[in-house]
Amino acid sequence: MIKVGVIGFGYWGPNLVRNFATSDRCKMVAVADLDSKRLAAAERSYPGIRTTTNPADLFAAADIDAVAISTPVQYHFDLALAALQAGKHVLVEKPMAASAADCRRLIDEAAKRKLTLMVDHTFIYTPAVQKMRDLVQTGELGEIYYYDSVRVNLGLFQHDVNVLWDLAVHDLSIIEYVLGKVPVAVSATGISHVPGAPENIAYLTMFFEDSTIAHVNVNWLAPVKVRQTLISGSKKMVVFNELEPSEKIKVYDKGIVLNDDQEQINKLIAGYRTGDMWAPQLAGTEALAAEVRHFADCIETGTAPLTDGEMGYNVVKVLEAASKSLAQRGASVAVER
Amino acid sequence: MIKVGVIGFGYWGPNLVRNFATSDRCKMVAVADLDSKRLAAAERSYPGIRTTTNPADLFAAADIDAVAISTPVQYHFDLALAALQAGKHVLVEKPMAASAADCRRLIDEAAKRKLTLMVDHTFIYTPAVQKMRDLVQTGELGEIYYYDSVRVNLGLFQHDVNVLWDLAVHDLSIIEYVLGKVPVAVSATGISHVPGAPENIAYLTMFFEDSTIAHVNVNWLAPVKVRQTLISGSKKMVVFNELEPSEKIKVYDKGIVLNDDQEQINKLIAGYRTGDMWAPQLAGTEALAAEVRHFADCIETGTAPLTDGEMGYNVVKVLEAASKSLAQRGASVAVER
Amino acid sequence: MIKVGVIGFGYWGPNLVRNFATSDRCKMVAVADLDSKRLAAAERSYPGIRTTTNPADLFAAADIDAVAISTPVQYHFDLALAALQAGKHVLVEKPMAASAADCRRLIDEAAKRKLTLMVDHTFIYTPAVQKMRDLVQTGELGEIYYYDSVRVNLGLFQHDVNVLWDLAVHDLSIIEYVLGKVPVAVSATGISHVPGAPENIAYLTMFFEDSTIAHVNVNWLAPVKVRQTLISGSKKMVVFNELEPSEKIKVYDKGIVLNDDQEQINKLIAGYRTGDMWAPQLAGTEALAAEVRHFADCIETGTAPLTDGEMGYNVVKVLEAASKSLAQRGASVAVER
Amino acid sequence: MIKVGVIGFGYWGPNLVRNFATSDRCKMVAVADLDSKRLAAAERSYPGIRTTTNPADLFAAADIDAVAISTPVQYHFDLALAALQAGKHVLVEKPMAASAADCRRLIDEAAKRKLTLMVDHTFIYTPAVQKMRDLVQTGELGEIYYYDSVRVNLGLFQHDVNVLWDLAVHDLSIIEYVLGKVPVAVSATGISHVPGAPENIAYLTMFFEDSTIAHVNVNWLAPVKVRQTLISGSKKMVVFNELEPSEKIKVYDKGIVLNDDQEQINKLIAGYRTGDMWAPQLAGTEALAAEVRHFADCIETGTAPLTDGEMGYNVVKVLEAASKSLAQRGASVAVER
């Protein structure tokens, strides 16, 4: 049993605590949060766990093996470093840290101490993303042409990071995991509609070494929530609609018409989709439950997590390049090697 | 009765011919096309009209008042210029011409001769776009924050122009008409997946003098056809889904949460939309029928069309800037004044 | 070339005329309608065809081989009988006639004269219904459990027949064609909300010799148009949504849980659908064009149409039984053998 | 604080326990279930509550004020009666009991002892049903023409009751609450596809004293889960789609065309909906939380619950009449007064 402490009991922390508490591989030991009202709530729901307003109490506790950090991104580095230095395994919220340099520092620290360092890119553990990876990696989609994602939210503005760091972060991990490659250059545009606040709308294009292109549309100010991803290959295409209750993944046989046959052209103009469509049934597993199991496995076996520090580092490098491009209204910026 | 000749009887030409033929304001006189099989089809459907493989026959015909040009864009300028020089009013397919300079030349020629020059930006005449213009221009949406459009097609590749010139062209006219302003700079990215062919996928961000931002996602290689536009203002937001049979326009009351109230935040995170929604019923009018009537009105009264040469020119200027930016992987390019 | 006259140029007649006119197997010769304004419209659209306010002119015309009858149902019998007696092949709108006895009479007359008698159950010629028949007849769905259809319209009230005769008529032909069997008893309920007018809402259950059950929900007073049919078998289930532009037919792998396994039960309760789903691409053919071709084939070869008089007769027998049951608030009424 | 014991910890019981546990008006004291594994699960989730395999322990407990019964329907009567006789307030799952006579007996017992007797018709406490009641009771919909509901599930077969008792029960309570009236006669049809098992598909028409008609389509063997209700009035119509995440309630302005105006008729035939549509935002409250609060209120003030014994009794009377009609293939059966 991995004995776990969680830092941060705001929006996401309670989900972590619940999954650690119900996992048969872990034991929830303690929760830290600056807000004592939140700690009181944690105590009501989980009688018997310890609470503290001081995260250092968790690092010092001999009965804690691993720490999960679910705080604003600006605190990730200090807390994760202190945890590693105290010999704890770490699961840290995404984005992993506020800079790529900080990410690298954490990776090195964990390596030196032979501790598990995992980033909470939860999407990687969903049945839908697993299915997309299968479809791409088995070659069923053919050569990958593009990844196109729309991820827009309902008017919830963050004040510490811009919308790319809040929402595009999901796609960056999915792209690395599903396509198995990372961008070499980016172009980003966006704007803030609240004076002095970070960008609340942004568009990010990513270029790769080959002719794959990726694009992410993120927005905190949409009338309807949208979570839709297209992956198109030379053989088939996938539509992933996270909010669709019954058909999250649809796979389409593809058709391209390059010739001048007017009848074929008219058919494509008049049509609404191409080829047969197939919507595989997906397991109903909660991603976070799978992730918690995987975290326990990695700690016990010493293997690298799917969402290890390297993935967290790659994601932050792209976000840094994107922020630079954003400041130059879309000028292409190389992603640091 | 405006007596009309149509040049080009491929995909769109037959729609023009049908609408001129059934209009009580116009009379279809002649059709020109290089392909005699198409001319035979035109004769079968419209017994009594003249046909010719030589467009010059239409310019020379004394019984033709106006010419509609529905050919590939590379021929627009020469044909429109010749028509104007022959004293004919002109309706030309969009984009108006292959360069802004050509557009300007046509505008001048029409002005000199006091002829009507109209560009077939059909969307402007749809009840949905009319409704969006009303919502914006009456201030019902408040200050406009962004325009965001996805316009993707099913595998139909053009070889003469890239996907921006084929699909983004619609949004450029809608933006000018609905928002009442034109972009000052653009950033565009995209790629071609067929060696030697024009870009089949592209992303275009447009900046304005104020803090409005616009973005268009265009793609010839999608598994499903999408035609969706969001316009967000400080008071309300509109979703325009052209393919939705019964609720093309949805208007949402808006909500933004800038504070730290955790309960409000959780509600927004868990929610799927904001505020009440209202879907006004739209008239079922065919846009092209309204456009043909408007063309006849403009010719008879000498007033400028909604989609006049200036709009066509503005649209092409943005397309030229976008093509430059595309070649530089998103670098910001100013739109010529 | 089959030379055709059409009687009735109201709502559906123009579709018949258009399809006969564009078919390379038929030639449109003449149109009859009581309303001379409609005849003028027919002449405008089809220069060269003859028009008349007297249907008898069509029966008397030596240059007419076949007559299509698209009038209110009360006139079907007299017109079809006169046409047959004049030696014309007949295509008659559905329902075939106002009584089963009249249908039988027409069948006998056509048989005696070796003329083709076809009923315009257009749905039978749609790619979607053809696909459903394939799925059922090849056994892919397994033993058929039920057919369940919702067919509701927007406030368009007929005054000559009730809603069963107007809308359920489609399902009755689809059931016979797709399932390959006819009901033995019916129970129908419904009501009229306009005093003195026929029922505008009705529910029809049909029983068969085996344990298949069918139900049709028809309604002239719905806020949204619905056209959805479910066919469930012991192996798979089909959903046919006529109004869905891109996925008219969806085939679902099925799951039933008969045991007491709580986890399985919870999964079904929480789920939104069962098994994999597959949406085959359907041809974009216009049903009426296929039907017109089939009519010409049947006339030329003397074979019985898919939608022959017997199908028309079976449909009307069920409608008669349903009307009797409706008057008794659902009491079971046997369908005449 | 109302001290509560819950009998039955299968599918629904845990929801009751969770809502009693988190309510600030109630205190969860004890859970009874025949299955000790379920009791162990209850103890893990709610450390400190008592558990027992004998419901009588709850009736005998001095520290229990109220008992909630969430068992198969066949046990409702005996358990509820014993609870009332022990002086406990009762919340009983729907349907209230296996016969109307049993329901009446429970009502009398509760009245005699001045105890609160409430039936868990949870839907009544949803924001959507509350909104529909408002729309009907304020006259906004006008005179009510029909209630039409489809409520179909994914292959989960019950063995103790037929599908009407399992699913139509929801609509019967909604009809009484929203329309404010009860049916006077019913016609029901249905069939069982599993030999010896209760009907798994059924259709129920309900007649009222006026010209309102109601129909419920219930089915345990559907490929997709559907929960859709239409209520149509002389002025407006409502569509309630429980599974739609963002627009559960849509209100449509209505249109009927009774005249012969061909243009109007064509518009309705071609259209997909009538009038403007309005989708009011609904509160995100969990119905069961509101219900638990209401239960506590009723106990404390002695007022009758919205879903009191009388509603439970009326619902069971209709179910009894429906079962009789079902056995006679739809013959009309009067609902007992």
TrEMBL record, chains A, B, C, D:
Pfam families: GFO_IDH_MocA, GFO_IDH_MocA_C3. InterPro entries: Gfo/Idh/MocA-like_OxRdtase_N, Gfo/Idh/MocA_Oxidoreductases, GFO_IDH_MocA-like_dom, NAD(P)-bd_dom_sf. Residues 129-238 form the GFO/IDH/MocA-like oxidoreductase domain. Residues 2-121 form the Gfo/Idh/MocA-like oxidoreductase N-terminal domain. GO terms for molecular function: nucleotide binding. It comes from the Bacteria. This is Predicted dehydrogenase and related protein.
